[in-house]
Amino acid sequence: MKKIIDIAPLVVFVLLVLALFSFLQRDNNQLNSVLIDKNFPEFTLTKLEDEDIILSKSDISHFPAIVNVWATWCITCRVEHPFLLNLKKESKIKIYGLNYKDDRQKALSLLERDGNPFEFSIYDKEGSLAIDLGVYGAPETFLINSDGIIKTRHVGALTPEIWNKKFVIHLK
Amino acid sequence: MHPLRKQRIYAIVTVLLGVIVALVLVMSALSKNMNLFYSPSELASNSVAPGSIVRAGGMVASGSIQKSTDSLKVIFLITDFQNSLSVTYNGILPDLFSEDAGVVVKGFLKEDGTFLAEEVLAKHDENYMPPEVAKMLDKTE
Amino acid sequence: MIPEIGHLLLIGALVVTFIGGCLPIYEFFSKKYYSQSYVRPFSVLTAFLVSGSLICLIYSFLVDDFSVAYVATNSNTLLPNYYKFAATWGAHEGSLVLWVLCLSLWLVAYMFSKRDVNDPFSSITFAIMNQVIFAFVLFTLFTSNPFERLLPFSPLEGGDLNPSLQDFAFTIHPPLLYLGYSGLALPFSLAIAAMITNNIDSLWARNARPWSLLSCAFLTLGIGLGSWWAYYELGWGGWWFWDPVENAAFVPWLISIALFHSLIVTERRGVFKNWSLLLSILSFAASLLGTFLVRSGVLTSVHAFALDPERGLFILGIFTYFVFGALLIYSLKNTKTQSESTYSLTSVEFGFLLNNLLLVVLAISIMFGTIFPLLYEAYTNGDQVSVGPPYFNVLILPFAIGLGFLQGIGLFLGWSDTKDFKFVNRLLIETLTMLIVINIILYFLFGSFNTGSLVACLLFSWIVSGNFLDIVINKRPLNKIKSFLNFRLGAIFAHLGIAFLVLGIGVVSSYSSEKELLLSVGESYDLDGYVFEFENLSSEKGPNYIADVASLKIQENAQAISLSSEKRNYLSANQVTTEVGIVADLFKDYYVALGENIEGDTWSFRLQVKPFVRWIWFGALLVAIGTFISSIKLLRKET
Hints:
The complex is a heterotrimer. By secondary structure, chain A is an alpha+beta fold. Chain A has helices at residues 2-33, 75-90, 104-114, 128-133, 160-167, and strands spanning 38-39, 44-47, 50-56, 65-70, 94-100, 121-124, 140-144, 149-155. Chain B has 2 domains: 1-33; 37-139, CATH 2.40.50.140. Chain B is built from 3 helices and 7 strands; from the N terminus they run αβαββββββα. In chain B, strand 4 and strand 5 (84-90) form a beta hairpin. Chain B is elongated, with a radius of gyration of 22 Å. Among the domains of chain C are: 1-157; 418-511; 513-614, no CATH class. Chain C has helices at residues 2-30, 39-62, 69-74, 81-87, 92-113, 120-143, 168-183, 185-196, 202-234, 244-269, 273-295, 309-332, 348-379, 389-409, 422-446, 451-474, 478-487, 489-511, 613-636; strands at residues 384-387, 513-520, 524-527, 530-541, 546-556, 559-570, 575-579, 581-584, 588-599, 602-611. In chain C, the strands form 2 sheets. Chain C has a 5-stranded antiparallel beta sheet with strand order 3-4-5-6-7. A 4-stranded antiparallel beta sheet of chain C has the order 2-10-9-8. The longest helix of chain C is centred in the middle third of the chain and has 33 residues, at 202-234. The two termini of chain C are 45 Å apart. Chains in contact: A-B, A-C, B-C. At the A-C interface, helix 1 and helix 2 of A face helix 3, helix 11, helix 12 and helix 13 of C.
């Protein structure tokens, strides 16, 4: 009897840990489930640099590539900007921009002022493409591998460490 | 009976009693105060009884916010990109509430299919989506 | 350079705590004792290494070193220096360094609080604390390194200028909370040491109690400050939302209270050993669980940290290791040294038993309600629910009544048995008298009765009578009163604090006035006898915002009170915030939040009168003072 009372807390604890572990797994799966291992979604939006040009999924054509969600109101985006510029210089990977809920003129001015790492940017004023991608906010970056499949995404500013830990492995 | 034995029994009975009372309390409090969360599509499909307090969420549709000029009444549409729900709210909206942003409302469905909100929750950064809404939107893909 | 040093110092701490965590355990089990006088120097060394690391991080913030990723994402050249300093612990990575520092400071405090630490009990305590520090430093270095560099792509400007974080109260709230959370590691370590060295006795209880009291004191301050900040910052007039992050602090707070009460019994009578051991483990477990919930991303909350399941997994691992390990030792411990003295149903021991029970059950119920949405989602395959404030409010009431009842009679009960029940009559008379007086005052102030506040007043009168009034009235001569009060000073302050807290909550919940409405310039509104007049609207320019400022005048009888509320537009961040206007006196707060411009000079407002709301934080302060007093007294008497 005494022994049962002594062991009971341990048993309850193990059950709790298993439950917590399962929450983590679900959360993990949920964050990724939407688009990992799928193609980039279809869309019809204008090009930031030229509002007369309509872009669609087929314009995201050079792989491997990353699609970077950014905006002028996103202060954290400025933090990863130098890294993106360098990435364009140093590597063969194509960087496509997704200008999220932004003002076209302001966005163009920023690119002119700070440099443009993007092949082009998709002007997603309403955020409809972002919704399809399951974007949480800006900055956010999606990696598309050489077969055109979305392999991973990162919420938050890209840093060399995150690039090496999370993105590089899919580029082999 | 040995006094020690008696004491042990009192202690165990007290603890057991306490736990049972607590369980009853928790279960009843939970069943009355648990709010299910629905998307506009689920609410449109007649699976939710009008009048019961629930939560609904979605994106505030562009250009759908109509504010009254002589009262605090505001009407807006929330959407999961498959269906829209008209929400009426009487009160001051949170600072983070805006079009094209995710929102969660708490209230009930009226007979006419519109939603009367008692609370509007837009706790997150206006450009981030409340995770409940994000998960729900993922499901409707 | 400096960030590298900071990084190295952390690695140094990792090494030192690894040795510190293993050596005493090895020594104890192999019975080979090397010079045990290393515990003090090691503790000091760890504290130095970790503070050095934090200083390097602070320095990086102050010099705007945006080559450090953490600084770049959490600071900005426009931030005033004080907020750059505080931004160090404003986000996950940096806050962990602060957590580790708090742990090391507790360790040093313990090691120097006793005259002699050359015994197995102290060295095992030292070892477990080192293991905890090691685990958190490992977590920091592996998943949340604040010294990660962006070189050579350092941005020229930082990424964060969140206005709601630029607030003094908000910056000292984390250090206080972390001191509370981490402090619970000490009674935890002491409990494990007691079990391993088979010293589960009064001496252990005596040792552990001041540290549980101190942790509770810091948690009280942290929670109270958080509540006060939420009140004036969020604009709704609310001060507690049962948000998961709030619950994550409230649950360990409740358990720590059960802990130090249980330790009193173990110290004085040698019973409740299992309770005290389990509560020691449970309080730290609650602290770790709270940390897990807030940082792993499983719970959605107003201010949960970065969503990252990898970190969640690591914290879960830490949680599992320590709590499983502790419970395993608990199940294997030697139970032969259990002495049993008997106590009756009317003894103070039984009162403490009920106290333990009520607190623990309440804590578990709150935790259950907090994670229920996760459970529901997991087992219904994706349906989502929310458990809102009504659940918690309904739940806490019976517990508050039960605990309040015990607080009133606690000081009168005797060990083993209570023989003298004369106090009951006196207590009832004193309570009734107080109750009547207070209700007369409330009626005079608010013009009505209310059952909700009646219950709160009853609890208040009961607790104040039992902890102060009766002592003063009944105990003679004067020097006897003085010595009794002095002996129980901490407890009296703390219980009175709870009384004020309860009264404040009861009154503000029952007698608050609130109205959301439209007002044009020049218009007035009568809110339950208080006349609010919207005098004028002006524009103001701040360092990084433009504000619309509404000035109001409130007429209270013959007096006119001015206050103003602002709507601030932060252009670069595209954010709008509300600055609430609050004017307070002893009995109430006037609370005005400006809404938006509807048309012309018509604006929406939320007007509130919140009676007795400050008494809540006043009560919390008294509780903190009381627990501090008790712990300092114990530490000073330490041999």
